[in-house]
Structure formats: C-alpha cells, structure tokens
Amino acid sequence: MSWEWDVIIEHFPRLLQGAWLTLELVLLSGFAGLMLAIPLALMRVSHRPWLKAIPFGYIFFFRGTPLLIQIFLVYYGASQFEIIKNSALWPILREPYWCAIITFAMHTAAYIAEILRGAIQSIPKGEIEAARALGMSYPLMLRRIILPRAFGIMMPAYGNEVILMLKGSALASTITLLDLTGMARTIIARTYTPLEVFLAAGVIYLIISALIIFLFRYLEKRFNRHQHWPNEKPKDLDPQH
Amino acid sequence: MELQGFGHLLLSGAWITIQLAICSLFVGLLFGILGASAKLSSSKIAQAIGNGYTLFVRGMPELLLVLTIYFGSSAVLMAIASIFGYDEYIELSPFIAGVIALSIAFGAYATEVFRGAIQEIPKGQREAAMALGMTRFQTFRRITLPQVWRIALPGLGNLFLVLLKDTALVSVIGLNELMRQTSVAVGNTKEPFTFYFAAAMVYLFMTSISMAGLYFLERYANRGYHGARA
C-alpha cells in the first residue's frame, strides 16, 4: 500500500471548492432553521394544548427519522405530485441545492426548537415578571428580554447542533451535490485513492468544526456579556464621574 | 397507504437495520469503554490515543466514515494480506463495514459518556476496593462498571437513537437495509413519496419502541434510588 500525497495536493483546490459549498449549506440552513425554530419553540412553551401539539408532532417526526429519508422525501418525493410539479414551487424543488437547504433547515429547526424551549424555560421568572411590571407588551418583551436571554443560555448547545448539522450536510452528496463529501467521492471515482482523499476531506471537516467552536465561544461571551459586568463596566452610567 | 406488495421488502430491510443497529451497539459500547479507559489512564500515550480518537471521529461526518471504512479497508486489508503472500482482491461485506463504521462513531461519543460516568463515582470506593486487595481490573469490573451503567444510561440511550438513524447511511454502500429496500421499491413503483414516507414511519416506530425500552431500563437501573433523589 502506498500513500499518495500528490493526489491530495493536486486535488486540494477542488476539495476546498466542495468545502465552500458545505459551508454555504450549513450557514444558510442554520439561519433558516433558527428562524423556523423560534415560532416552534414559542408554541411549545405556550399553555394552550392545541398550540403545543403542532410543534410536538413536527419535532417528533424530524427527530425520530433519519436525515437521509427526509432529504429523499423532499428531493424525490415532491415529484410524485402533479400539483407540486405544476406549481410555482417546482423550479425550486427541482434543484438539489434548494432541496438540501430546505431539508436541513427543517431538520435542524426541530432540534433547535427543543434547545430554545429549554433555554426559554430556564430564564429566571423574576426577569419576565419585571418586564411585565414595566408594562411591556408580549412582542416587546420577546424582543428585549426573552429572546436575547434565551440566545445567551442556548449558545453552547446551539454550537453543538451546528456541528452536528455540518456533519449531516455530507448527505447532500447523496442527491448529486458536490459538497466536500461529494467532491471527495468524484475525485476518488477517478483516482482510486479512497484513503488519502477521504482522510483529507475529514481533516477539512475537522478544521471547519474547530472554526465553528471558536465562533460560538465568541458569540457566547457576547450574548452573556452582562455576566462579566465587573470587567466591562459601562463608563457613562456612573453618576460619580 | 397502498404498498403494492412491497411491504415484505420493507420489513426484510427493517430486520437488517435492527441487526445492524444491535451489532454496532455492542461493538460500540466496547469501543466506548476502551476509549474512556484510555482517556482516564495515567499513561500519556493512552490519553493521546483516546483524545485523538474522539476529536477526529466526532469532527468527521458519519457518512464519510462509512465510505472511508468500506472503500479504504480493501487497500489496508490487501496490504496486510500481501505480507502473507495472498494477492487476490479483498473487500469487506457492506454489513461488516457498516458495523465497524457505526460502532467507531458510537464509541467516540460513548467514550465521553463513560468518562463522565466513571468520574462521577466517588474515589473512596475504588480506594476501598484496592484496600480489600482487588486488582485494578477486578475493581473496575465489580465496583466501577456496575454503577457506571446507571449513570451512563440516559446518555447512551440518546446515542443509541442516533445510531439507529445512522444505520440509514449504510444504504449508500449497498447493504439491503430498510433505506435501500425502500429505494428498490421506489424504483419499481415510481411512487417515491409513498414509500419514503412509509419507511419514515417504520423508523419512527423503531425509535419509539427504543425510547419506551430505555424508559423501562432507566427505571430498572434506578430502582434503588427512588425517594432518595427527587
């Protein structure tokens, strides 16, 4: 068995191209998933049973089935219905790129919604009571108190979820997309050097997840900066000066 | 839902999926215990191996792992075989490759679960066992391991659910498990939504059964703790 460095070096630019598509998929679906998760989580913490049931069913389905099935359901499944084929949605659902993003966003939203629900429920009651005592309306309270606090609490768990989504994004290669894994597979089909190319791709994944970890450490600090208050005292609030 | 006589195909696939999941679970638990022992060992080399294992495997997509094991193993196996003078083509069966890949992935996460659980057991118990003259292995088997199960069970349960869903990835290398049998049915009937949805329901059923099983296992493992912990 010989280890061929040349193959890795020669095809490295193409692997980076794939890595770029992977990043694009993770960032776009991560953002869309977060937006979708907010209403789901808010419905989940509601006190009305019928409002709770919708996100419960959604989360149960998306967390209980493999991502591979979900991506096939969207990419291949949509073509079974003439109504979808004739609708304005078809140009989007025909593209593997958008199918991957839609599926990943819906998948990750189910997980983020559960994380967000836990974060919302762990906000100290007094903070919400204080907001109410100040006469804030529900949307204002949501924007100023509940969501910013919940984001700060959920940051570490959300970072883990983004890394899981990074790994899940490899499934985009099963619907013909040339993401990092897909690119590695096409290179191997030509060069027959599976170990070298797959391991090179693995190292790139590792570097991307390290970058994500650092990003979330920073975001966590930023959202929870009120907790480091003695070090970052706002200057113009001190009446003695 | 009309399955046009392909129901038995899906069921036979589901049976392979269950076998794959159970085999990977047992091998993966072994990897997890070994990994945790390596990480908690006093040897720097063992620690480095344990840390490298969890870092690399947890940062790599499971699909990439499955592909690497399946397509990469031939090169390694053939290189080993050629030392013994055997020069024919060797390939792992998809089932074996799937078990290896899934158990490596499961083991990396299980390593962290076991490590946390082992550290939770008071040091005094191990010292007491040593004082009674037990060897380190005896201490581990008689004192640490039985208690580790109880603490590690919730974490391992979640990992098993992840494992069960990851078995679908082995369809990519051609194992006739639920996902691949479903694709076969789709190819024949041209009704992708119906069949993938049916398969999703089978997966949902399997995860629900596992969740119920885990609930009872946890209750059984905690039977001595009722009341003491609220």
Short description:
Chain A has helices at 5-44, 49-64, 67-75, 82-86, 90-93, 96-121, 125-133, 138-168, 180-191, 194-223. Chain A is mainly α.
Characterize the structure shown:
The complex is a heterodimer of chains A (241) and B (230). Chain A is mainly alpha-helical. Chain A is built from ten helices and no strands. In chain A, helix 1 packs antiparallel against helix 2, helix 1 crosses helix 6 and helix 8 (138-168) packs antiparallel against helix 10 (194-223). Chain A is flat, with a radius of gyration of 22 Å. With 230 residues, chain B is mostly helical. Chain B has one domain (12-225): MetI-like fold (Orthogonal Bundle). Helix content of chain B is 78%, strand content 0%. Chain B has helices at residues 7-40, 44-58, 62-83, 94-120, 123-131, 136-166, 178-189, 192-221. The longest helix of chain B is centred in the N-terminal third of the chain and has 34 residues, at 7-40. In chain B, 38% of the residues are buried. Classes of the chains: A mainly alpha (241), B mainly alpha (230). The A-B interface holds A 1, 60-61, 64-70, 72-73, 76-81, 163, 166-171, 173-174, 181, 184-185, 188, 194-195, 198-199, 201-202, 205-206, 209-210 and B 55-56, 59-64, 67-68, 71-72, 75-76, 78-79, 165-169, 171-172, 179, 182-183, 186, 190-194, 196-197, 199-200, 203-204, 207-208.
Low-confidence stretches of chain A: none
Distance between the termini of chain B: 45 Å
Q: Greatest chain-chain interface?
A: A-B, 41 and 40 residues
CATH superfamily of chain A: MetI-like
| CATH fold-level name of chain B | MetI-like fold
Give the overall shape of chain B: flat
Q: Tell me, what is the CATH class of chain B?
A: Mainly Alpha
Residue-averaged pLDDT of chain A: 90
Name the beta content range of chain A. under 5%
CATH architecture of chain B: Orthogonal Bundle
Helix coverage percent of residues of chain A?
Answer: over 70%
Rg of chain B, nearest Å: 21 Å
- CATH class of chain A, named Mainly Alpha
In total, how many beta strands of chain A?
0
Helix share of residues of chain B? over 70%
As a percent range, the share of strand residues of chain B is: under 5%
Major β-sheet profile of chain A = none
| The number of domains of chain B | 1
How many alpha or pi helices of chain A? 10
Class by helix and strand content of chain A? mainly alpha
